[in-house]
Amino acid sequence: MYKVFVDGGHGTTGLRISEYLCNDPEINLLAIDPADRKNTEKRLEMISEADVSILCLPDKASEEIALLAPKDAALIDTSSRHRTSKGWTYGMPELAPGQRDLIRNSTRVANPGCHASGFILLTRPLVDAGIIGKDALLSCFCVTGYSGGGKSMIARYEDPARPSELDSPAQYALTQSHKHLPEMVAMTGLTYEPCFSPVVGDFYSGMVMTVQLHASQFETKASADDIREVLRCRYAGEPLITVKDTDPPGGFMYSDRLSGSASMALYVSGNDERILLMAEYDNLGKGASGAALQNLNIMLGREETTGLI
Q1: Which of 79, 85, 180, 285 has the fewest CB atoms within 10 Å, measured from its CB?
Q2: Would you state the torsion angle of the CA atoms of residues 286, 290, 291, 292, taken in this order, to the nearest 10 degrees?
Q3: What Rg do the C-alpha atoms of the chain give, in angstroms?
Q4: pLDDT digits (tens, 9 = 90+) for 3-26
C-alpha cells in the first residue's frame, strides 16, 4: 500500500487527482483535517509520512511548502512555479529518451502546463530531427475548455446569470506573456518564445493545441508525411500518445473530443507547404491531473498507466 498526500486537494486539479486515487486499492490517500489544510506544520507531517505528495497549490504556496519539505520527500508540483527550476525534473515521460528514469529517480517533479504539453510534444521531435531550427519563429494557438481557469472561471461560466459574451470563444493572454511560454522554450530547445494565442470556449474540458508551420521555415526538406513519420517513430510504444494516420473525422477538429481521457492524439494536416500540427487532449487529463498520476505511478514504480486507461 502506497501513501499519497494531495496538498491543496480542493482545487480543480486536486479534486480530479483525489477522485482517481480514492478508488485505487493500492493507494492510501492521506487525509488532513479540513481545519488544518492551511496549517504548515500539519501539512509537513503529511508530506513526511507520504511516499509521494502532490502539490495542487498556487505558485507561491507551492514554492513555500517545497522549500520547507524534507529533501528526501518526493513531491509532484502541479503549479507553474518549478517547471524550469534547477533541481526539478520536468514531469513529461515522453519528452526525450531517459526522461522516465529521471522522473523515477527524482524527489522533485514539476508537472507540465496544459498548453505547453501539446506544443512540446508536437515540436520537440522536429527540433531534435533537425527539421525545425532552434531559432525558428513559431506560431501556435490552443482552444481549451473553461475548467482550465480553475474554480473562479468555472463559477463564472456556470453562473445562470452569466453575461452573454461567454457564449462565444474568448482569446486571452493578449500581451504574449502566458505563464507556459518559458517551459515551451526550455523543453523544446527553441531560442525564441512562440507567438501563442490561447482561446477559451464554452465547454467544460478538452483542448486542441495547433502549431502552424510553413515549409520555408524548415532546415531540411520535409513533407507532411515525413513529419508524421518522425512523430510516429518518436512516440512508438507510448501508451498515452497516438499519432493519427488521417485527418480528424469529418474534417473538423473538436476540442472536447478527448474530455475525460488521460491520452493525447497527434495529427499532421494541411499540405506540404502549410502544415498544421495538432494535439488533441483533455486539459484536466494529459494536461494536468492525468499527467500528475502518470508521474506518480512512475515514481512509485507502478505501471505508469494504472488508473488512467
Answers
A1: 85
A2: 160
A3: 19
A4: 999 999 778 899 999 999 988 999
